[in-house]
Amino acid sequence: MNTNDIKAIKQLLSTPKNIVIVPHKNPDGDAIGSTLGLYHYLKKLNHNARVITPNDYPDFLKWPPGEETILKYDTQTEECNTLISNADIIFTLDFNAFHRTGKMAPSLESSDAIKILIDHHQEPDDYATYIYSDVNMSSTCEMVYHFIDMLDDTDKIDEDIATCLYLGIMTDTGSFRFLSTTSTTHRIVAELIDKGVKNADVHNNVYDTNSYNRLQLLGCALTNLKVLPELRTAYITLSQNELQKFDYKKGDTEGIVNYALSLNNIVFAAIFIEDRQEGIIKISFRSKGNFSVNEFSRAHFNGGGHNNAAGGRSEVSLNETIEKFISILPSYKDPLNNE
Hints:
With 339 residues, this protein is α/β, with parallel strands linked by helices. Helices cover 40% and strands 18% of the residues. Helix 2 runs parallel beside helix 5, helix 2 packs antiparallel against helix 6 and helix 6 packs across helix 8.
């Protein structure tokens, strides 16, 4: 984002506006944290701001300050469409293409509001008036901190804003262990703690709220774990019947793929989850080093994301999807073994 863009946005935000803030469908910690962090900041500037998520999200994300004000498009469609149609500005956070918002996309596309994109995913669509895109950033929450800094307003960051931004940085860096975690990331985190974040509480709220069924589902997933040592790949499957057996709730499979990636000598991991309601197999890919799961997913599974974390989907059966996955892997044997 250049100097002229920052000046224009400063001028734009100098008087109260109707503002809508939107994350992607099935929002994660970075999506919720970044939208709420920006929401609290804009409220301090006396804007009429609201966060609208395309759909619901896991219970372990229903605690950050301001969460109770979030509207869900799929269940509050009329109210959300009114806010979108009356918006002067729409911030789109943690996604880079309207289709990532599901059924909300047509309303966003048809809106005459000025659109501002803040995101760290690769290859953003060209729909926004102002684009702040940086694939090297650890998280959109880190980018929101930099955005506030560009506007010379870090003095306005209070405990509520800091808590929301810490949430997204923590979750999108895998608790600060991913390669995207830089010294700048740690300096920002230190600043957020100085602003009042209770970091142990944030971690406990996200990671230490397991239900009995969720742990049983994890056990099932690990039982289904398969390893292809010659390709340094591991994968997990979960069928719809298995999800139902353990009373699956949204978010229960979050992070399970990382168990496969944690295996010794594994550089590529995947989890395949059957979703009969949507008629698809949802896929999450993870990798270590320079093996790009973003490129792999874009090439074969209608997805994308980051170099080391991406999502995808398949519209054939679970077994057919696994067969396709296994059939593709040999063509990647050299890069996987050279990693």
